[in-house]
Amino acid sequence: MIKKVFVFSMACSVLMAGCQSEVVSEENKKPTKTDTIVSPSSQPAALPATVQPSQPPQSEIPILSKTVGLGDTQEEMEKYYGKNENTANETIHTYKQKSIVVMYADKVATNITLAFESTNKPRWKMEDALAESQNYIPVDAVKVKEYKLDEERTVVQYVSKQLAERLKEYYDFGKTLGNEDEPGTFIVILKQDQKGVFASIMAPGSKP
Question: Is the pTM higher than 0.90?
């Protein structure tokens, strides 16, 4: 079943990444005060009002990105962004007034589109759109290359060990089809017109 779903996901990929500790000291085997050290949680980059998420939830399954994004579970996506707005389609879900579009395979996000044109800031500068996209990709992602596919699309390719582990079956199945991509390879496609970037698409693989 998962192979069929992944084939569909690969075919559709272009359509559309607090800590607390206690220090206890002992003197002559008598307990003393316990000091609690809490490190401040990092905050995601500011988004338009229609896209602004809540605080990332705690989960037994690690969240790969700064917010919740590529490779994360449907459960965590919906804790973070709210209920799916596109109930008519079981494969493509939308959140935050359709400004975030997600495709799942076995309840894991394998394609994410940030639809800037559905927000109160419909066009972004290239560097700002790329910086915003990085909130939705694995934090261990390493940039491989960047190139201009055509006048409307710029592609940035990354590789992530965490994504390779989370989508292991996806990449393993790709190899059976002759795909030579390194496991964990994914791309961000920035779509633009003369006014600026209006969408960012994130998906596994190297082909736009």
Answer: no
